[in-house]
Design goal:
Residues 1-21 form the signal peptide. Residues 219-649 form the TonB-dependent receptor-like beta-barrel domain. Helix content is 7%, strand content 55%. By secondary structure, it is mostly beta strands. The chain has one domain: Maltoporin, Chain A, CATH 2.40.170.20. The strands form four sheets. It has a 22-stranded antiparallel barrel. Strand 16 and strand 17 form a beta hairpin.
């Protein structure tokens, strides 16, 4: 049955695979071609340079140009990364919150993020404890995205199970002129963007403001997001460039809460009464300032980065009002070079990262969305130091042996400022060594085979160490893992491009967050002694047909096959770990005319449901689903593009993602419904 499901999904995209990723991008360009003048940026590499660098990695990686998703609705992380194999991401509610899983990272997370380092222009967006949110990432303010799965993220010093995602900003050199975008659609969604870029002599600057509002598919999901992003760069001679990045975000997002299974099947649009009465929501104000300076001399380059980020979070939940004030900072340095070693080419990177941060975490009684008496007050301090290196030794011009290592020191200190109910202060330190070895063979341009073995480690975040419903310092061990990976990527003649990775991870002390009944989705963490994560990540793209007048039919697909399970657990045996589907397919076919018109159907398919509890109770599994969509647009009018993006055309009722628990029952509020049928349309222009 599983083989039949996969085969059917593959057939949907068969015969429509493009000659190369570049050709796919050209077929989906959402703006007229831009002629960039002046010197290329040292601090923000071009897409071409980013692809050349990332393809030196002996493992699963990808560069996603913004043009790939800007031809439709572009409001969520799912919109941005849904066609990246190995990345499973689903919106929870509204446009701001999502659940992200890469190779089983964050599998049990029903809030925040763990196991994946998010970066903006190379410096972290995550908090100093490793957790993260998505509200600072504006899909309309990116030039391209780098995805590094697993230990392939050592490029930035990260060694986590899920890897890293780097969002790269436009600059005044890459995106000169004025740009605007207006779009809207179902659930009273309405968004606007205004952007401008310029470059003159050694200076360039780029600025974007976006606004997004909507009511959401479900009750109690009103939202309002305003984002400001920009950067200013200055070239100092021909070898030095410094660039200042800044962003500001105001997020107002109601939270409907998860549903029981019966509530989902009765009315997926409802919000539990407690969430409505207590006005549960997430109000965020944040500001981030960063600098990147690059000194590039021949084969050597030194990069110094620093950042500071402040965030206030006002977060009424059904059981409490959480009021957080966070301040995070960091400094990173990296040196890249190339030398001859034993008569062979040898490239290397060495670097060091320091991250620090504090969070003043207060809780109050929730009185209909407003804070009542204080119930808890503590200060959470996190810091980490990473020293890392990666080396490429070219045994032949076609074969590179890649070795790497990371040393990681992390500290967590909890200071209890509310001693009425006792002193919950605590502290812990963690030290890990994470090595990596791999090989990359490129027998001809455009064809690569790779393999690697790596270790990863992740200390607990504060959501695990100091749970909201039971404050205190939990005695948790860091999660560690060994991963083996093999794969290939490339293109075949003028018809097919592919990206394939197979991996298996042996995970110790996996950190699992289990939803606590009656606490509005709050969760408590445990360590799972041993677990296995393994899977297949397959991406295909190509051209099925092209006429003499350049009409063409293209296609793309991303298949993620996942098997996450306990490993001889004394309670759960070899049960599946709950939280994500075993199969997930995204596929699209598209017709493009020479005049600029395009149209095509797309599919999101989860052919098998998945468990929501460790007992693997089949009565509470999610159901399979298939969502049909259609995208069309016109780019033939110089400087303008129009698009229509229709989703879930059959109005399929489905669960987009879940929280997990040890033993599910009829009262377990775990299910987050996906959106019903919807249509979005927009226009964007560049002058």
């Amino acid at each position: 049955m599983r083989a039949r499901h996969i085969a059917a999904g593959l057939l949907l995209a068969a015969g429509a695979f493009e000659a190369s990723a570049e050709e796919v991008n050209q077929a989906q360009v959402t703006m007229p071609a831009i002629t960039v003048t002046g010197t290329a940026s040292l601090t923000v590499p071009s897409i071409k340079d980013a692809e050349e660098q990332i393809n030196k990695t002996p493992g699963g990686v990808e560069v996603v140009p913004a043009s790939r998703y800007l031809d439709g609705r572009a409001t969520t992380m799912k919109d941005m990364l849904d066609y990246t194999p190995g990345v499973w991401i689903q919106s929870k509610y509204g446009q701001e919150d999502s659940k992200l899983v890469i190779r089983g990272s964050g599998l049990s997370r029903n809030f925040h993020l763990r196991g994946v380092r998010l970066l903006q222009d190379g410096s972290p967006i995550n908090q100093a404890d490793g957790s993260g949110d998505f509200h600072e990432i504006d899909p309309l303010a990116q030039q391209y995205i780098e995805v590094y799965k697993g230990a392939n993220a050592l490029r930035y010093g990260a060694m986590t199970l899920g890897g890293a995602i780097n969002f790269v900003s436009p600059t005044g050199r890459s995106n000169p002129g004025l740009a605007a975008r207006v779009y809207g659609g179902s659930y009273q969604t309405f968004g606007q963007q205004a952007a401008a870029g310029f470059g003159e002599g050694p200076w360039d600057a780029w600025l974007s403001f976006t606004n997004l509002s909507g009511n959401g598919f479900r009750e109690h999901t009103n939202q309002s997001l305003q984002r400001l992003n920009g950067n200013v760069g200055a070239q100092i001679g021909s070898n030095v460039e410094t660039r200042f990045f800044f962003s500001g975000n105001q997020v107002r997002n109601q939270i409907p809460g998860s549903l029981t299974q019966q509530q989902f099947w009765t009315d997926p649009r409802q919000g539990p009464l407690a969430n409505v009465l207590q006005n549960t929501r997430r109000d965020i104000d944040s500001f981030r300032f960063a600098n990147t300076t690059v000194v590039d001399v021949g084969d050597d380059a030194f990069t110094l980065q620093s950042y500071v980020k402040s965030k206030s979070l006002f977060h009424p939940l059904t059981f409490a009002v959480i009021d957080n004030n966070l301040l995070d900072w960091g400094v990173t340095g990296q040196y890249k070079g190339s030398r001859q070693l034993f008569g062979h080419r040898n490239d290397f990177i060495v670097g060091a990262n320091y991250f620090g941060g504090t969070n003043r975490n207060r809780q109050f009684v929730n009185r209909f969305g407003m804070p009542g008496p204080l119930t808890n007050d503590n200060t959470e301090f996190s810091s980490s130091v990473e020293i890392y290196g990666e080396n490429w030794f070219y045994a032949t011009p076609e074969l590179s042996i890649v070795t790497g290592i990371q040393f990681n020191w992390a500290n967590r200190v909890l200071t209890d400022n509310y001693l009425v109910n006792g002193n919950d202060s605590g502290a812990a330190s963690y030290f890990e060594i994470n090595p990596k070895i791999g090989a990359l063979w490129e027998p001809r341009p455009g064809l690569q085979f790779f393999a690697n073995v790596s270790r990863a480690s992740e200390p607990p975040t504060w959501s695990e160490l100091n749970p909201s419903f039971a404050p205190g310092f939990a005695p948790l061990a860091p999660q560690t893992s060994w991963t083996a990976e093999i794969g290939t990527r490339g293109k075949l003649g003028e018809n097919v491009g592919w990206d394939l990775s197979l991996y298996r991870s042996w995970v110790k002390n996996e950190l699992q967050l289990l939803v606590v009944p009656g606490f509005g989705g709050s969760a408590i963490a445990i360590n799972i002694p041993n677990a296995i994560h393994q899977g297949i990540e397959l991406g295909l793209n190509g051209t099925a047909w092209r006429s003499e007048r350049n009409d063409r039919i293209t296609g793309r697909m991303a298949l993620t096959v996942s098997d996450y399970r306990f490993d001889n657990n004394p309670t759960y045996g070899n049960n599946q770990l709950p939280g994500a589907p075993p199969y997930y397919l995204r596929a699209e076919a598209r017709y493009d005319s020479p005049g600029g018109f395009y149209i095509g159907p797309n599919l999101e398919w989860s052919p098998q449901g998945y468990y929501v509890d460790n007992l693997n109770n089949t009565a509470f599994m999610t159901a399979p689903y298939a969502l049909l969509g259609l995208k069309a647009g016109y780019t033939g009018l110089k400087g303008f593009e129009f698009f229509v993006d229709a989703r879930n055309l059959t109005n399929q009722m489905y669960v987009s993602n879940v929280g997990v628990t040890s033993t599910a029952n009829a009262t377990s509020q775990l299910y987050n419904p996906g959106d019903g049928a919807s249509v979005y349309a927009g226009i964007q222009a560049r002058f």
